[in-house]
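thought: fold this chain, then report.
action: predict
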Amino acid sequence: MKLNKLFILCLGALIISNTYAATNDAESAKKRLLEPAKQKIHKAQIDLNALLKNDSNDLIIEYNVGSTVSTASGVQKRNFIASNKQAIRSAYSGAKGLTILRDYNALPLTAYRINNRDTLVQLLNDPNIKAVYPNRINTTNTRESLPLIHQPQTVQNGFTGAGTSVVVVDTGVNYRHADFGNCTGTNTPLGATVREGDRLPDDTCRVSRAFDLAPDDGALDDDGHGTNVAAIVAQVAPQTKIIGIDVFRTVTSWTGEIQRGAADTDSIAAINWAVNNAQTHNIKAINLSLGTPGRSYNSICENSYTTPFANARAAGIVPVVASGNDNFSNGISSPACTAGAVSVGAVYDVDRENGLTWGPVGNQCTDRIIRADQISCFSNSGRLLTLLAPGALITAGGHTLGGTSQAAPHVAGAIALLRANDVRPLDANGHIANDAETIDQTIARLQDNGVEITDTRNGLNFRRIDLQAATRTLGFLPPPQQAPVVVPRRIS
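observation:
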């Protein structure tokens, strides 16, 4: 008995000693941090004390390699990033406790696991490290929309998204559903390549790629959210191809709850893939119907998506992000708050006889009277909000869901329609312009021609997309002239 007591006392002393040592190491590390390092941590909204006390930290590191947005795209850009990354990394060749979790060849970012405080301090103090970001976990933003945005008339006028692609970063896509054509596999069958009326032939698969960047869960879509979102894009833009990227994995929340979530590292990897393949697939938009719940932003936030979004836009890809479903009337969620994002809030698509209550217990809201174009009570709002679109309730891909998650893909599909390769603005005389619109001009077109709606919670006015109005002053380049086929004459 005395021996057992002695063992317990010694074990307790050892635990206290280790805790004291960890605290002491953290204090020592804090004293060695330079002021610029502390500013990096503050800007990333990371708890400095928790960061230094943790035995292990997963961080997304942004290198100071100069502007990559203006650098030429493709191989030259990747080589520029790689050489600069390697030059900075060489200083850490012998660093302890530094493991690469994920690298991004089209972005000046790397995700690291750091379990050595000396290495952590060295990284934070390094002027070649531009910024650090936490690896947050994002959740899906789930809460007879086509007539409301005048999509049928727009498609009838020839705006179908032909030749374009939209990337859907979500829980996957069940491409076997009829909303994506008669798919037996991705891009299979390929079907005809000619236009037939206002849609692709029935034997054409609309999903050109579908893969996991989070650990492969063995399912096309184990949730249904991504399939619903992808099908909304497919309905809005009936000739656009869908690229589904699964970034969701099983995670444990800070409360110990097991849930599905998307790590920033995986979502950024999806953006990295899109930038690398922008020209190959003619990608016009990337849809992120996800976000970090429970926190609102009413000014542009700088985070781990800032540089990826800037590089996506430079490659001609518009990041479309759901504003979030937290009932906030004075702020939207992240990454919707990021510079370069087109943030989208939700409205109802039709009048409904019965009211609806949204959200979990403790954070619920109720719309007792529901009218078409009414902003849903759950929809995050504020001066950063870019556009509104139908988001409650939307049936697509075999699922009926409501949320800003469903509003965002309406806008992603709209962008594919407006930014197809043969679409050009018309001048005052109705003549076709030579140059396509910039991304900012396309967004302004959706805003200027949208239906004005007032959010009664904050008195702010926003525009709900109207495709027919937005395409009224757009036209099409004439098809390229095909050279006549010359059949050589046989001389006998």
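thought: worth noting. The mean pLDDT is 89.
final: tokens above.
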